[in-house]
């Protein structure tokens, strides 16, 4: 190899190392947007294996069929095929989605969801809007035409959806977004009043602007069920007029919807899982980019070592730590009173399990002090978490084990009592496949 070529190679290696160090040092907001349409992600051209892609394959092969309903189109059949409960229905009346011209406080958009699929429907809409969680790609978007067809099938959408659903608000990757806005009597956003990205960390007082909310929540207040005038006087909002609604009679033509509810518990679960789905996808993307850089670096150095540079290791660990915080509800907004839904969603959701030998499940609700009785997310069972690169998943399991066995009692996890930790540990040992062997050894 010539001296000139060696010099060029060293220069390239230095450039990569500088880039890697810079990426480690940058604050999160400065490196939020990821290039997801190049190696190793190839978002637009990658083969999808999400639940909607699998349904598409079944429809094409004739294994499944979608029946057209004269009133609701393909919505009932699609929910059945994707195993989505109608109790999950929540209604959003702000004009914040693809078919905004058809959305209003009188005709809100209905949203239904499972652990890994979201379906949006508007009254007399041209399409059903679908988002699914792919283990390697994060959110993948589809539409299904709402007109009779001999062979109906979802169609994947790219730019029209990622314009809004791939930004710093979705962790810089194609993701899901739940917003709270100030909407007027037509459902138009009053932009001058601002808006909120809603997660399980959001105080209830900031949540559900532009959404209908059915259920009780005591003295706690939120922005749901309220219409505003421009300009909004933020200091004189009548929160009481939208509080503790048992039903939506007089506000919505309920005959046009699968249920008469926009359940408060379903909304809380939606906000939690949408944000955590994004965190898991972002960890996947960032880890795969980091491992790709390590691979290129090794190729330049003619190295066959499997060791990772310290900078790459830190990036992988940080990706895992972000997911871990979401799994353990770090920063969750506390409830100050009991919350109860109206649709039966809480009962349906809690019944899905899995349960340990004592009958406990991570899906059991608390709804008095916090959302869940055992503060470890049910998304720990998700295909997306299992698909994280080995180094990230192993780091999550190691740190989680240290926390739930009380070997890590740092302030970041102080919200977990000794009883919480023990219960989470025992439930996971009984119900979570793929845990490392050290999880099942006797604990200190």
Describe this structure in words.
By secondary structure, the protein is an alpha+beta fold. It has 10 helices and 8 strands. The chain has helices at about 5-25, 50-60, 75-80, 160, 265-300, 310-325, 345-350, 385, 390-405, 420-430; strands spanning about 90, 110-115, 115-120, 125-135, 140-145, 155, 180, 195. Strands 1-2-3-4-5-6 form a 6-stranded antiparallel β-sheet. Strands 7-8 form a two-stranded antiparallel ribbon. β4 and β5 (about 140-145) form a beta hairpin.
Mean pLDDT: 90
Coarse morphology: globular
Largest sheet: 6 strands, antiparallel
Which regions contain 5 or more consecutive residues with pLDDT less than 50? Answer: 1-32
Distance between the termini: 56 Å
Number of DSSP helices?
10
Classification by helices and strands: alpha+beta
- Rg is 23 Å
Number of strands: 8
Order of helices and strands: HHHEEEEEEHEEHHHHHH
Share of residues in strands: 5-15%
Q: Within the largest sheet, what's the order of strands? A: 1-2-3-4-5-6
Helix content: 25-40%
Topology of helices and strands:
Layout: H1 3-25, H2 51-61, H3 75-81, E1 90-92, E2 109-113, E3 117-121, E4 127-134, E5 138-145, E6 155-157, H4 159-162, E7 179-181, E8 195-197, H5 264-300, H6 310-327, H7 345-350, H8 383-386, H9 390-404, H10 418-431
Antiparallel strand pairs: 1-2, 2-3, 3-4, 4-5, 5-6, 7-8
């Amino acid at each position: 190899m010539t001296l000139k070529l060696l010099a060029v190679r060293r220069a390239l290696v230095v450039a990569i190392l500088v880039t890697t160090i810079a990426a480690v040092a940058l604050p999160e907001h400065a490196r939020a947007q990821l290039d997801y349409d190049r190696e190793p992600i190839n978002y637009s051209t990658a083969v999808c294996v999400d639940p909607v892609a699998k349904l598409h394959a079944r429809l094409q092969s004739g294994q499944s069929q979608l029946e057209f309903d004269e009133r609701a189109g393909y919505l009932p059949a699609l929910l059945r095929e994707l195993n989505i409960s109608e109790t999950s229905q929540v209604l959003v009346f702000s004009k914040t989605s693809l078919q905004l011209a058809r959305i209003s406080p009188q005709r809100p958009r209905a949203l239904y969801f499972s652990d890994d699929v979201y379906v949006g429907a508007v009254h007399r809409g041209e399409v059903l809007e679908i988002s699914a969680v792919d283990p390697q790609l994060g959110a993948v978007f589809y539409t299904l035409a709402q007109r009779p067809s001999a062979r109906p099938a979802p169609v994947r959408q790219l730019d029209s959806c990622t314009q809004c659903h791939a930004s710093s608000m979705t962790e810089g990757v194609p993701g899901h977004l739940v917003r709270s806005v100030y909407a007027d009597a037509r459902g138009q956003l009053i932009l001058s009043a601002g808006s909120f990205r809603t997660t399980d960390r959001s105080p209830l007082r900031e949540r559900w602007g532009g959404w209908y909310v059915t259920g009780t929540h005591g003295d706690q207040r939120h922005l749901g069920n309220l219409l505003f005038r421009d300009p909004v006087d933020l200091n004189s909002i009548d929160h009481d007029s939208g509080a503790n609604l048992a039903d939506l009679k007089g506000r919505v033509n309920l005959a046009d919807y699968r249920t008469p509810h926009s359940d408060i518990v379903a909304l809380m679960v939606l906000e939690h899982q949408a944000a955590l789905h994004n965190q898991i996808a972002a960890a996947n993307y960032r880890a795969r980019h980091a491992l790709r850089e390590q691979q290129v670096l090794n190729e330049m150095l003619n190295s066959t070592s499997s060791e990772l540079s310290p900078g790459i290791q830190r990036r992988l660990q940080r990706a895992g730590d972000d997911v871990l915080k979401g799994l353990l509800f770090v920063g969750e907004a506390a409830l100050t009173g009991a919350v109860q839904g109206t649709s039966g969603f809480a009962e349906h959701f809690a019944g899905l399990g899995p349960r340990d030998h004592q009958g406990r499940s991570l899906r059991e609700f608390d709804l008095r002090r916090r959302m869940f009785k055992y503060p470890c997310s049910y998304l720990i069972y998700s295909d997306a978490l299992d698909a994280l690169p080995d180094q990230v998943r192993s780091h999550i399991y190691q740190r989680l084990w240290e926390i739930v066995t009380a070997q890590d009692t740092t302030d970041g996890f102080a919200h977990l009592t000794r009883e919480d930790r023990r219960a989470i540990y025992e439930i996971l040992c009984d119900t979570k496949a793929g845990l490392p062997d050290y999880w099942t050894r006797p604990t200190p």
